[in-house]
Design brief:
This protein has a 7-stranded mixed β-sheet, sandwiched between helices. The chain is of the alpha/beta class. It is built from 9 helices and 9 strands. The protein is globular, with a radius of gyration of 18 Å. The chain has helices spanning about 10-20, 45-55, 70-80, 110-115, 135-140, 160-170, 175-185, 190-200, 220-235; strands spanning about 30-35, 35, 60-65, 80-85, 100-105, 120-125, 145-155, 205-210, 245-250.
Length: about 260
């Protein structure tokens, strides 16, 4: 396949995929919360929920961006937070009447549409789907009260496995043609780039951690494992090795 033959995904294609039955409503697979599909790696929402309890003031107001079915909204609502959901595809959100909801295109200056400030913003598994991650972070900053926090997750490019995949195939973990076409992963962000973008937006980085471990296998898995083992030994940056990167960043109190 040449570069010109490589599959591409239009905006209409991304939205159409997201509107499919697999993306809608309730699902009885293992990646759900009380029947609401999480659209995230197993265990990620549990960890993000625990971090939210530790980082956000009890009972505060939180904007959950890219809410999907509403799984994270429901989890945090039951934890005592006052939730607002937003998403591009309104019909996928299953908490109408229970949680306020705002239809929103996150590729726009959405803070103007939101029109108010929150104590916290949660953004799990969305920034990799967006055309301009720096604009997105600036908009999250604009939606926060001074002292408010952003809790964000995205696929982790820092793992030894992801680096081994990139060396052997020029595509990182979670950023193959399949991930591009089926999941809309269009914007990979290394931790270095994400840190810079957060600082440029005005945030102070409070916490960096990761979650999950991929155990394979796939074609050529043994060679990938050996190369990943070498990268782990060579890593002098103590890079987070979980599949999903999780960052907490704060808007300065004097902002």
């Amino acid at each position: 396949m040449t570069e010109n033959d490589s599959p591409i995904l239009t905006d209409e294609g991304r939205v159409a995929f997201y509107k499919t039955a697999a993306a809608k409503g309730k699902d009885k697979d293992n990646y759900n919360y009380r029947g609401l599909r999480a659209h995230a790696a197993e265990g990620l929402h549990d960890l993000v929920g625990n971090i939210a309890l530790a980082e956000f003031p009890a009972g505060c107001e939180i904007l959950d961006v890219a809410s999907g079915s509403g799984a994270m909204c429901l989890r945090l609502l039951e934890a005592g937070f006052k939730m607002t959901g937003c998403d591009m595809v309104e019909e996928n959100f299953q908490l109408k009447g229970k949680v306020p909801f705002q239809p929103l295109d996150l590729n726009t200056e959405f803070s103007k549409t939101i029109g108010r400030l929150y104590d916290g913003v949660t953004a799990t598994e969305i920034i990799e789907h967006l055309e301009n991650p720096r604009q997105f972070l600036r908009q999250c900053f604009a939606c926060l009260k001074p002292g408010g926090k952003l809790l964000l997750s995205t696929p982790n490019l820092e793992t030894a496995l992801s680096k081994a995949m990139y060396v052997t195939s020029s595509t990182a973990k979670w950023y193959t043609d399949r991930d591009y076409m089926e999941y809309g992963h269009i914007t990979p962000m290394s931790l270095w780039v994400l840190r810079k973008a957060l600082l440029e937006a005005g945030f102070k980085i409070e916490k960096v951690t990761s979650q999950g471990e991929y155990k394979g296998p796939w074609k050529g898995w043994r060679k990938i494992q050996l190369l990943a083992s070498l990268f782990r030994r060579l890593d002098r940056a103590n890079s987070p090795q979980g599949e999903i990167l999780i960052v907490v960043a704060q808007k300065p109190a004097q902002a």
